[in-house]
Design a protein that fits this description.
It is a single chain. With 303 residues, this protein is of the alpha+beta class. It folds into 2 domains: 1-183, Uridine Diphospho-n-acetylenolpyruvylglucosamine Reductase, domain 3, CATH 3.30.465; 188-302, CO dehydrogenase flavoprotein, C-terminal domain (Enolase-like, domain 1), CATH 3.30.390. It contains 11 helices and 15 strands. It has helices at residues 21-31, 44-49, 86-91, 93-98, 100-107, 112-117, 120-126, 132-139, 238-244, 251-263, 276-302, and strands at 3-5, 14-16, 35-38, 58-61, 71-74, 77-81, 143-148, 151-156, 161-163, 166-167, 175-181, 188-196, 204-214, 220-228, 235-236. The strands form 4 sheets. The protein has a 5-stranded antiparallel β-sheet. The protein has a 4-stranded mixed β-sheet with strand order 1-2-4-3, covered by helices on one side. A hairpin with a 2-residue loop joins strand 7 (143-148) and strand 8 (151-156). The chain is globular. Bound molecules: flavin-adenine dinucleotide. Flavin-adenine dinucleotide (FAD) is lined by residues 36-44, 46, 62, 82, 108-110, 114, 118-119, 121-123, 125-126, 131-133, 169, 171, 175-176, 202.
Length: 303
């Protein structure tokens, strides 16, 4: 573990880089709410500088923990450590092939500098309604492992969200150690698309991810659709998923799913994002498009 003193005492005084999860949890416990977990720092350090967080005495950097800077294929899962950056995910052959929507969603985050240090764990723990990596992982049916004084446990990703920027992960006492999803197999595919204003404030207009399973008769056996920002937390569009399951994979069916997805969310107009009508049109346009892309990937696996 390295401890570095921060020159400016109006922020944290100590910066730890623990080598094990146990060590990280022990430091957090010792500081009793006065230390905070940091990943790549691309959100936290910017927000801390702007005075958006209560000052803490220490930062606990979890990107140097042994074994958690890697992507592994374990049992039935692709497992991503909390030190893994978006750039690592975008380049990983297993994720490109068997978790395409995660590679695509991490690939649109910021620019190369942000992707080279920002982590998927930080994106999830930040709990913004439209975190792109989060939307990608949610579509894949992702799970996260959270470690604290009582040990570590896996939970479905969607159960970690409490509100905008609010997570059930206590970022002063717990570490999101690993993330995982079941890779898409033969007859399965996934895809992601984000619409964003290219200039000015970089706020997403809509970010969407899908995962589908297709049988040999072109019938959709299973489907997941994630969206954001359409409410306080990243959204799983269950009624729209139900519209697809058991139905043929056709353009008409994708359009119905998009219509049902829109009936079940309240897309707000925002002067920084777009009008409600424009955002709805983006869902009508791009949700069917990514369903088609995911189905095409599924078909390739069947052939
Ligand atoms: C210029 C710029 C552009 C950006 N563009 C995008 C974009 O297009 N799409 C997008 O989704 N995001 C974007 N972001 C936001 C940010 O880069 C991502 O959300 C990134 O994934 C955050 O990861 P991080 O490792 O840097 O998290 P950090 O900033 O280190 O932490 C974020 C939050 O999560 C907590 N945390 C971090 N890691 C853990 C952990 N392992 N366990 C528990 N808590 C943890 C921290 O305490 C903090 O609350 C952008 C940021 C910048 C500066």
């Amino acid at each position: 573990m390295t401890v570095m003193a921060q020159a400016s005492s109006n922020r944290w005084q100590h910066y730890y880089t623990p080598a094990t999860v146990e060590e990280a949890v022990e430091i957090l416990q010792r500081y009793d709410g006065e230390a905070r977990v940091v990943g790549g720092g691309t959100d936290l350090l910017v927000e801390t500088r702007r005075g958006l967080h209560k000052p803490v005495s220490a930062m606990v950097d979890v990107t140097h923990i042994d074994g958690l800077g890697e992507i592994a294929v374990e049992d039935d899962y692709i497992v991503i450590g909390c030190g893994v950056t978006h750039s690592q995910i975008v380049r990983n052959p297993h994720i490109i092939e068997q978790g395409s929507c995660l590679a695509e969603s991490c690939g649109v985050i910021g620019g190369p500098q942000v992707r080279n240090v920002g982590t998927l764990a930080g994106n999830v723990a930040h709990a913004l309604p439209a975190g792109d990596g989060t939307i990608g992982l949610l579509a894949l049916g992702g799970e996260i492992e959270v470690a604290g004084v009582d040990g570590a446990r896996w939970m479905p990703l969607q159960e970690s969200f409490k509100g905008p920027g609010k997570s059930f992960i206590d970022r002063y006492r717990q570490v999101l150690t690993r993330l995982r999803f079941r890779p898409t197999g033969p007859g399965e595919g996934s895809a992601h698309h984000r619409v964003m204003r290219p200039q000015g404030l970089c706020l997403p207009i809509i970010s969407m991810g899908v995962r589908v399973a297709l049988d040999a008769d072109n019938v959709i056996g299973d489907a997941r659709i994630s969206m954001g920002p359409v409410g306080p937390v990243p959204h799983l569009a269950e009624p729209a998923m139900d519209v697809l399951i058991g139905k043929p994979a056709t353009a008409g069916q994708y359009a119905k799913a998009a219509a049902v997805a829109l009936q079940n969310v309240e897309l707000r107009a925002s002067k920084y994002r777009a009008t409600r009508e424009y955002r709805e049109q983006m869902v009508r346009t791009f949700l069917p498009a990514i369903l088609e892309r995911a189905v095409e990937r599924a078909r390739q696996g069947l052939s």
